[in-house]
Amino acid sequence: MRPSGRELSELRPIAIETGVQRNAEGSCLIRVGGTEVLCSASIEDRPPPFLKGSGQGWVTAEYGMLPRATTSRTRREAAAGKQGGRTVEIQRLIGRALRAGVDRRALGERQIVVDCDVLNADGGTRCAAITGGWVALRLAVNKLIAAKQVLGDPILDHVAAVSCGIYAGQAVLDLDYPEDSEAGTDGNFVMTGAGQLIEVQMSAEGAAFSRVQMVQMLDLAEAGVAQLVSAQKAALG
């Protein structure tokens, strides 16, 4: 039995509310169980310097966690004068994931920055950030299309992410914090709407896992991402 009482293949309740920041070209608040992430997409009419003159655009991300997103206060990284290694790793993952779903030449020489701020953390914050970040990106690109600033649709496919793990010896989908903190294996799966893999992060936190267990987690992830994509579509109408 999972601490939440969910089935092994059951996602936490998902809600995606769009248009929550009036000044952003695209924004949403994604809730996955007790995890809540505010995502916004900002269009900059110039690419980063290394792409100037290339005819290609760029999508990047920044990630942060508010001090009381967790059970005890986490010090602001700005107060320390630099980002922590975990933050840098997660925002690079988000950027890589979102770029995989974009035709950067069709985007043109501009940059879209996706900001993901964790309001409440209960496991799976990076996965929620990717899933919600894509919705914010989609909304921002829709504005470019409506303004005829791009010739075609730069978005190639949906991008979403979900966690899986081995908890109490069984493969489970979408770990919350109680499971994540005790899981023998922890994995994050980033996929397209067509079910293609973008990135997989898997590591044994305790005992090593088998090939059979790896395939079980992949099967759970495929089904979970399909549900997340459906939630993205519903949020966008």
From TrEMBL:
GO molecular function terms listed in the Swiss-Prot or TrEMBL record: 3'-5'-RNA exonuclease activity; tRNA binding; tRNA nucleotidyltransferase activity
Exoribonuclease phosphorolytic domain residues: 10-140, 159-223
EC number: 2.7.7.56
GO BP terms, alphabetized: rRNA 3'-end processing; rRNA catabolic process; tRNA processing
Catalysed reactions listed for this entry: tRNA(n+1) + phosphate = tRNA(n) + a ribonucleoside 5'-diphosphate
Cited CDD domains: RNase_PH_bact (cd11362)
Signal sequence annotation: none
InterPro entries reported for this sequence: ExoRNase_PH_dom1, ExoRNase_PH_dom2, ExoRNase_PH_dom2_sf, PNPase/RNase_PH_dom_sf, Ribosomal_Su5_D2-typ_SF, RNase_PH, RNase_PH_bac-type, RNase_PH_CS
Keyword Iron-sulfur: no
Pfam families documented for this protein: RNase_PH (PF01138), RNase_PH_C (PF03725)
Coiled-coil ranges from the UniProt annotation: none
Binding sites annotated in the UniProt record for phosphate: R86, G124, T125, R126
Annotated keywords: Nucleotidyltransferase, RNA-binding, rRNA processing, Transferase, tRNA processing, tRNA-binding
Alphabetical list of PANTHER family matching this protein: EXOSOME COMPLEX COMPONENT, EXOSOME COMPLEX COMPONENT RRP41
Subunit organization: Homohexameric ring arranged as a trimer of dimers.
Function field: Phosphorolytic 3'-5' exoribonuclease that plays an important role in tRNA 3'-end maturation. Removes nucleotide residues following the 3'-CCA terminus of tRNAs; can also add nucleotides to the ends of RNA molecules by using nucleoside diphosphates as substrates, but this may not be physiologically important. Probably plays a role in initiation of 16S rRNA degradation (leading to ribosome degradation) during starvation.
Name of the molecule in the record: Ribonuclease PH
Organism: Paracoccus suum
Taxonomy of the source species: Bacteria, Pseudomonadati, Pseudomonadota, Alphaproteobacteria, Rhodobacterales
Gene name linked to the record: rph
